Amino acid sequence: MSHRKTLLAASIVAGLCISMSLHAQDAQQTGTTPPTSSTNPTTNPTTNPNANAQQAPDQSQAKQLATVTVTGIRASLQASLDTKRNADAIVDAITATDIGKFPATNVAEALAQIPGVTLDRLFGATQRVSIDGIDPSLNNAFLDGHPVAQAMWLYGDSPNRGFNYSLLPPEILGQLEIFKTPEARLPEGSLGGTVFMHTVQPLDVPSNTLTGSFGVNYNDMVDRQRPNGSVFYSWHNDDKTFGVDVSAQHYEEITSRQGQEIFGYSTAGSVASANPAVASEIAAGTIKASDQFPNELNVADFQQTEKRNSVFVNIQYKPSDHFDSTLSLMYMNDSLNNINTSLYPIASASPITSLGPANSAGFITSGSVAGTACYHSFNCASPALTFEDNDARGSYVQTRGIDWRGTYRGDGWSLGGQAGVSTSRDNISQAFEEFFYGGGFNWNTAKGFNFTEPSQANNPGYWADTMGGGGSIAYKPYKSKDAYAQIDFTKQFDGFFNELLVGARYASHWESQSLIDYSGLGEQSLEDVGFGGLSNLQGAKSIGLGGQFGAARCHPGLPVHLQCGAQSRQRPHRQQRRADVQQHVQHAAEEQLAVWSGQLRQR
pTM for the complete prediction? Predict the structure, then answer.
């Protein structure tokens, strides 16, 4: 250990000596006093005529280099960091540059860049977001500081506060902020986070800025592509006192959701008394009375074509550094017509001819139900139950809004105000029809189900309405309105308190929904309205299903009906069916409305 210390000390001393020697040489070469020795003429400018030429380059040979421009995202990152650093709450923020780095098709996908934000992709395009695991309905969203009215589009859905971010193109955004903790100045009512979407202002970007995007949505379940695109243009005068920007978007998407669902479970013991075959299996030990099996196996098919258009306009006026004012206009329409078909046999209906076996968890995965199909009967008493529900739904959402905001800045104080209103409406409609088939079937949770008599199941004469109502046509006019006004005063101080914020806000949210239901349209069979046959779900093998339905196609000579092609792979027939059904629904509704109105007048 002593030798190591000695060597280390010697090394330190030697290093110090060398560094002192080098420092002394540098001091001699860079000193202000010129060398006095004349023995070396090259170091004396008075004796070396070339010295001045070496120190002063020839200006006649100088060349003008091209301008080199370096661009980066440091400013955007700094802006995001400044927003978080200066906030008195837990805030996450991204700027327009961050948004543009990723191919987002709507604001929700742009929000996904922020930690803690989860996208909701329940119906095709992203509509809502969850913040830190909190339900989307428990988060608030504001566009340029104000709420946006929204109408429901799905028949049977309940009102919620979750904002539909798919309505907004990402090009209009200048900054996104998420406040994850509350502040007194923020609107109340948010648990997960409060989202503030700030649009690009025309005076904040260079004049004649033009940006846009174009894309194609492809869905391998429908083998079709749909276009989507958006464009943003901004202009302002040379004095930067007046500017206008416009953003427009068109979006289309085809959504196809097909799958199998299980509705509830029953124990084998609960049906043993009415089914001798099940009682025998329990007695033989093949299954246990506590083993569970599905009540219903539902095959669901949801098809939707969405077409959305939106236009946003900002008009900004800033005559001086003390005052600025912005008027914003908004219009959006969204067509969300869809068709939903469900075909579900009741596995718990009697007589059950077999159940089992059960897996290690005590769940029975297969079984059989006997039954006799009824031909041309609206009162079939078959014990086997298979229902086929058809829903043709119409939805066209229209949203409008106008917003004004302005700020006057004095010496150490500012006064701001904002006021506006937005409305949204949707005349939701649904045509519903349910048909019944009484034939037997076999079911398997891994393979779906198939009918024991496929020829009867594919005969429209064996499917008829037994509910006595003949279907129904319903309308749910939905309206929503948000009106608001607020005033804010800010005073800056240099003491212990550096800022005082005082404000008042008025907000009114109004929603209205009605239900108009027309029933009793007359009993019908599939022969009356047309039948496209049964087929497997598309992609059934890829999700582990392997049913044995026939692949009958829609018959071009038959009237098109909700069931026609509901599970068929024939896309042209499906599209034609969708158009015809909507026309049929509209005409039937008009006839029923006329009759209903006439009855009221007579009364």
Answer: 0.69
Q: Would residue 362 be called left, alpha or beta, if left means φ above 0 and alpha means ψ between -120 and 50 degrees?
A: left
- The pLDDT tens digits of the residues spanning 473-511 come to 899 999 999 999 999 999 999 888 888 999 999 999 999
**Other C-beta atoms lying within 10 Å of the C-beta of residue 545:** 20
DSSP classification of residue 569: S
| Highest mean pLDDT (candidates 291-305, 384-398, 403-417, 584-598) | 403-417
Residues 6+ apart with CB under 8 A from 88: 183
Mean predicted confidence (pLDDT) in 36-43 = 42
Pair 345, 385: CB distance under 8 Å: yes
Average pLDDT for residues 26-35, to the nearest whole number?
47
Buried/exposed 146-155: b ≥16 CB within 10 Å, e otherwise? bbbbbbbbbb
Instruction: Please report which residue ranges of 222-336 form alpha helices under DSSP H.
Output: 268-271, 276-284
CA dist 136 and 160 (Å) reads 9
Residue with tokens 């000695």: 6
Phi-psi region of 133 (alpha: psi -120 to 50; beta: other; left: phi over 0): left
Q: How does pLDDT run across 65-98, given as a tens digit for each residue?
A: 767 665 554 555 556 556 656 666 678 877 766 6
> In whole angstroms, what is the distance from residue 532 CA to residue 555 CA?
6
Q: Does residue 416 contact residue 451 with C-beta atoms inside 8 Å?
A: no
DSSP assignment letter at 363 = B
| 223 pLDDT tier (thresholds 50, 70, 90) | low
Cα–Cα distance for residue pair 480/421, rounded to 1 Å: 11
Q: 191 to each of 138, 165, 182, 256, 509, how far by Cα in Å?
A: 6, 18, 9, 33, 19
Q: Which of 6-20, 453-467, 527-541 has the lowest mean pLDDT?
A: 6-20
Q: Alpha-carbon distance 310 to 83, whole Å?
A: 29
Contact between 450 and 548 under an 8 Å Cβ cutoff? The reply is yes
Q: Which among 178, 192, 213, 198 is positioned nearest to 90, based on CA atoms? A: 178
Better-scored residue on pLDDT, 219 or 411: 411
Q: Which residue has the tokens 């960091």?
A: 81
Whether residue 212 contacts residue 171, with contact meaning beta carbons closer than 8 Å, is answered with yes
Does an H or E element contain 598, and which? Answer: helix 571-602
In 3D space, the residue among 453, 393, 422 whose CA is nearest the CA of residue 585 turns out to be: 393
d(CA 224, CA 362): 43
pLDDT band at 529 (very low <50, low <70, confident <90, very high): confident
What does the mean pLDDT of the chain come to? Answer: 76
- Secondary structure element (H or E) that encloses residue 10, with its range: helix 2-30
Enumerate long-range contacts of 581-585, CB under 8 Å, 24 or more apart: 581/339, 581/392, 581/431, 582/337, 582/392, 582/394, 584/431, 585/392, 585/394, 585/429, 585/431, 585/473
Q: How far apart are CA 397 and CA 376, in angstroms?
A: 41
Element (H, E) at 214: strand 209-219
Cα 146-307-426 angle, rounded to 5 deg? 55
Residue 504 parent element (H or E): strand 499-513
